Amino acid sequence: MKRHLSLLEELQSIDCLIDKKCLTQKNLHTDICFCQQEITIIRQTYEENLGMAKELEHQKSTLECTLNSELDNIKRSETNAKEIKTNKEFQAIDREINAARKQVTELEEQILNLTAQLETLQIDLGSRLAELQEKEAQGKALEKEKKATINSLQEEINNAASTRETVSAKIPASLIRRYQQLREQRRGVALSTVENGSCLGCNMQLPPQLYNMLIKGEELLYCPHCQRILLLKTETGQEAA
Q1: Which of 122, 151, 196, 210 is deepest in the core (most CB within 10 A)?
Q2: Per-position b or e across 91-108, b if 16+ CB within 10 A of its CB
Q3: One CATH from 2.40.50.140, 3.20.20.120, 1.20.1270.90, 1.10.287.1490 for 2-168
Q4: Residue 13 binned pLDDT confidence (cut-offs 50, 70, 90)
Q5: Distance CA 44, CA 50 (A)
Q6: How much is the pTM?
């Protein structure tokens, strides 16, 4: 039984190591995803602003066409006014010219406003593009670095898994099943060290009779509180006989 307990302790040590490395891998993947999400948000904002800039450019172009058309109308009306014979006709064309000039003023104001918006947006686009390019470069470097670490960890996990298979083969299948159940039920820790008569897994004091049985080391014993397999260590750190 002492040999089985020693093997279980070794198995738990391997499993804890694998769990730790898998968690590190998970955190590295999370870091990569978080960085990619940041880049996506920056890119989306840049593309949205780029779309706005294109829309403003289109509006400005449309207004400029309308403005040019109105200016042409004013020129024609002014030319036609020179040939008018009656006062009534002159007043009518004068109203048209004044209305067109008012329209021109309004169009010019709108174009100026759009131009100002475009200038501000272009500055923002320049900043966001620079930020996007910088983040993408940083993201590629970070992803390369973290994937290299992930791959290195995977090699260590594979090696540990190979060792685990060797150790598991020396332990009875029924005991392995019980060990696995406890790992699932107790957050990955199936064995617990006993110190000063207490189970360190749940910090509960063991009954004196159970503790005495544990000292004898004749059978596999479980904590009555957390159900973990109990492991007694001497002062030198070796399992008690």
Answers
A1: 210
A2: eebeebbeebeebbeebe
A3: 1.10.287.1490
A4: very high
A5: 10
A6: 0.75
